[in-house]
Amino acid sequence: MAPWFSASAVAPALSAAWRLGPTGASWLTISVQLGFVGGALVSAILTLSDRWSARRLAAAASLAAALATLGVAMSRGPISGFALRVATGAALAGAYPPGMKIVAGWFRDGRGWAIGILVGALTLGSAAPHLVRWLVPADAWRPVLVVAATSAALGAGLVLLVPNDGPYTAPSPPFSWSAAPRILRDRGVVLANAGYLGHMWELYAMWTWLASFVAASETTRRGTGGDTRAIAALVTFCVVGIGAVGCWLGGRYADRLGRTVVTSLAMAVSGACALFAGVVYGSPLWVLVPVLVVWGVAVIADSAQFSAAISELAPAAYVVATIHYGTNQTERQLTRRLVGAAEHRWIDAIGHPTGRRLGKREPYRFDFDALVRACAAAGCLLELNGHPERMDLPDTLAAAAKQHGVRFVLSTDSHQPNNLPFMKYAVDLARRAGLEAGDILNTRPLAGFRKGLKRGRGKTGKDGAG
Fold first, then answer.
1. What dihedral do alpha carbons 257, 258, 264, 268 form, nearest 10°?
2. Residue 287: its H or E element
3. 321-367: per-residue pLDDT in tens?
4. For 412, which DSSP code?
5. DSSP string covering 441-459, please?
6. 0.85 cut: is pTM over it?
7. Same domain, 304 and 361
8. Do 280 and 325 belong to one domain?
9. Which among 178, 287, 336, 434 is least buried, having the fewest CB atoms inside 10 angstroms?
10. What is the total count of domains within the chain?
11. Cβ(104)–Cβ(210) under 8 Å?
């Protein structure tokens, strides 16, 4: 991500070299944002991250961003420079979202923390050009861009060292404009996107404006004599870079306290710092910098959590609920969790219902009859998991559930493609239980499968929504 703010870090020197006014200087960053939006839209429409490996796409995009940034360093004027900045943004759109996908593919538990670490790394990359700017003479803008381009190229090579896209990666559905109305009707997704919009507005405004703010504050305090650009670059690097700590803290506590709590708290602190920054303008650095450091931590702490929240809140075509934690709870607690999941309107199936792992873990204790009654009443499916370590639901329990009108779904618990042949074991389970094709929803064509889900049958559950 170093190319993103590379031109912003040297905006005064670049503006002088290209004879840009204040409006022209602002386009050094605006052009990247426009390129990013355009690149993200094209990538989504063409589903590039599904056509190509996310690793290869991220690596190719990072290399393209490096070449575009190197082109800016070689440009002799603003026309080609701005065009290459747009290209930089478009290329980064092919690096940032696939990077998120790679991390999500490698982490299922603690995903918020993992994405937080990734955004922390991106934050340090965004801050790095300001450090390079502090280390070189004020008018030496080309070395800053060259270093940013080099770091992006090195990043492309590092991404290719990742062995694959991860055991938990999942293909995205094809891009569809028809999904927009469904998304806009989902209150949780709309609120998360609105919050993300406000967060990103503040974040990129703050990161872009910070160096100019610190330089102007120091000029006001010292007077017009002396060059304040070097100290402004160092302070900006520290403030933006410390955001990596905020990303780590946000990820750590979001998985424990909830994303809503963390994002709301971070935005409240960040907004307060934005207001207070005006109060300490012109103050000595020992007063100004601590305020900016707190702001730097808070302004980015919620970024990864918005991304994770939207991925979790987005409407899903098919949802399976499973128990992976708290398996040592009491029978009553486990029964309440399973029944509650079966009755929830957005839960379509209960996965590996008994939780057993053959030779490794006994089934957890719960009231199976209560779960069966809940599934029959709510239209929730029970999974017959054909993975050799699970073979869950056992055939005897599946046969008993059938007598109560429960329907089933066969699956493989696949975490990688070579697990897909386990479906034959799920079929064997179903045969031993005496199940027929009419009892198993995924024997139907896709349209019939969707219609057979509780949502397709008008089952609304007990979450207060229907």
1. 20
2. helix 285-301
3. 888 877 788 999 999 999 999 988 778 999 999 988 888 888 889 99
4. -
5. GGGS-HHHHHHHSTTTTT-
6. no
7. no
8. no
9. 178
10. 3
11. no
